[in-house]
Structures are given as C-alpha cells and as structure tokens.
Amino acid sequence: MLYLWLIYAFAPGLEYLTLVFASIKNSPWDGFLQNQLEVYKKP
C-alpha cells in the first residue's frame, strides 16, 4: 500500500484524472489529453 501513498503524495487527483480520461477515451478530447499528459510528465 506504500506505493499508493507515494502516488497520492506526489500526484494528488491522479486517480480522478485517470477515471475522467478513461470515461472520454474515444472522444475528440483524447488527443488533447494525451498531449497534456506528455507535457505534465516532462521534467
């Protein structure tokens, strides 16, 4: 369970964002979200 704590500590709302992303996976926003995630993951 420690890894879950680390995820929530460093990325609050990640689970919520994942659920939202999955709910609109096949929508026109999919590509936009992919781009945003790539930007977010950059150091």
TrEMBL record:
State the organism's lineage: Bacteria, Pseudomonadati, Bacteroidota, Flavobacteriia, Flavobacteriales
* Name of this chain's protein: Uncharacterized protein
The reply on keyword Transmembrane is yes
**Keywords of the record:** Membrane, Transmembrane, Transmembrane helix
Q: Which residues cross the membrane?
A: 6-24
